Amino acid sequence: xxxxxxxxxxxxxxxxxxxxxxxxxxxxxxxxxxxxxxxxxxxxxxxxxxxxxxxxxxxxxxxxxxxxxxxxxxxxxxxxxxxxxxxxxxxxxxxxxxxxxxxxxxxxxxxxxxxxxxxxxxxxxxxxxxxxxxxxxxxxxxxxxxxxxxxxxxxxxxxxxxxxxxxxxxxxxxxxxxxxxxxxxxxxxxxxxxxxxxxxxxxxxxxxxxxxxxxxxxxxxxxxxxxxxxxxxxxxxxxxxxxxxxxxxxxxxxxxxxxxxxxxxxxxxxxxxxxxxxxxxxxxxxxxxxxxxxxxxxxxxxxxxxxxxxxxxxxxxxxxxxxxxxxxxxxxxxxxxxxxxxxxxxxxxxxxxxxxxxxxxxxxxxxxxxxxxxxxxxxxxxxxxxxxxxxxxxxxxxxxxxxxxxxxxxxxxxxxxxxxxxxxxxxxxxxxxxxxxxxxxxxxxxxxxxxxxxxxxxxxxxxxxxxxxxxxxxxxxxxxxxxxxxxxxxxxxxxxxxxxxxxxxxxxxxxxxxxxxxxxxxxxxxxxxxxxxxxxxxxxxxxxxxxxxxxxxxxxxxxxxxxxxxxxxxxxxxxxxxxxxxxxxxxxxxxxxxxx
Length: 596
Fold this sequence. Notes:
Elements: H1 14-31, E1 36-40, H2 42-48, H3 54-59, E2 62-66, E3 78-84, H4 87-102, E4 108-114, H5 119-127, E5 134-138, E6 144-147, E7 150-152, H6 158-165, H7 169-185, E8 190-194, H8 196-211, E9 226-231, H9 237-240, H10 246-254, E10 260-264, E11 276-280, H11 286-291, H12 296-319, H13 324-335, H14 337-354, H15 357-370, H16 375-387, H17 392-405, H18 411-425, H19 430-438, H20 451-457, H21 483-494, H22 500-505, E12 510-514, E13 543-550, H23 555-566, E14 572-578, H24 584-589
Parallel strand pairs: 1-2, 1-3, 3-4, 4-5, 7-14, 8-9, 9-13, 13-14
Antiparallel strand pairs: 6-7, 8-12, 10-11
């Protein structure tokens, strides 16, 4: 099963980005002559698996190891560390080198930082008196193609760093990544941004263009017509809701990591030897591409129909005489049998979670909170979860969702739940609650909530959603249209101006600018709602919009954007970029830490 996604059908040449990253890594390894041991931090190893196959690394005379506190087990005299710029990883490196020195091992050390070296990391080496032993370099991996329409900046902690730690370095990283795209595809002429971080990125991007200009005269027409930048803080409601698309549910329950899930082999009907199996989930799997964005209810029906159809074909094959072309068709269908078996097994496994009363109860409660009804029922339900000692993350998801839609909790409820959480789950979680408070995600109510106005004006709750034949993005949550994607819809259809009053009710400033010297490129306002031909670039392709989520995007939102792009009335292609693909659990986990 191919791990690296096929990018041949991407609306813009993402293969060139991947190949460039591949070539840069190979050049780093070639610069260290002879046999060498490449020690990668495990998190980065997952990312690299989407860029380069380990067989190619071995061709460069490379032994592969994962960085940990344990000594490096290798006979190589040349060690190349490839790590993200994080001080805790530097401590592992120092521990490894100190161990070598104590054993009298003489080795040549190289450390390459991803995407760039930082003073704080080099200071760790200096403090440990090891700096002089290292050759230091950079591997500028700013952007990772996850699939043919999805890019990741691989900045897991950027949301928490911006909101809690006051560390905005990730914003420079995002602007740099977009600017690198501009060197490949031309200056992006139209920019829409909403949220403090997004507006800042737009500003940094303009400064980068002034200091290191992409030469617009080299490009007849930019390939990316527009970039929409959106802070996660602007819409925290969506990631806290349970996703109901196939891919979204796979992430909620099995945790998709860099385009694959790692599960017990028995789930796929393999021998029960306790071994984990990695299942790639990207558009190289044709069946997955067909069903990933659908509501899970529909997926179960489609898989059932496909299985029944194949069973009927088999019966026809064995009971009637078939022509050669009919035989060929049947063999072609048989080739898709492994994919079908895999997804039937995965769907069956997901059904064991989605049919549980706890999950159905949580869905009901999310809908109750979004529709701003029956607060007492919400509080009773959350109180019951705490008393049953349900996982802390489950409780926090609902509490934070309530806090955001109601501009906080009434003081007596806030104090009560804070006390109950610490009493039931332990005072070591005080740091987590402090982080959530600092981020404004769990707070006392100090003003009236604007949620009802936002919900009504943007039509976020859609009654009688047809999940089988959807005509609105609300199908991804069975009735709730993601706020973030409603904003993207407006940004594309008519710009920010018609929704200016609503934008003022949401966190952070908004911005709308035109840059570069492309007076003949289609203006942003022509991308939808008027003849399709106007939204095409001269060679006949559809105009391309880059949608950037600062702080994370969910698979359900990606599905909603794909749904929009597939509509005949929408005359553009979309590429989605995000700091990370998240769900309610993984997003809140970045805020969690234990005292001591």
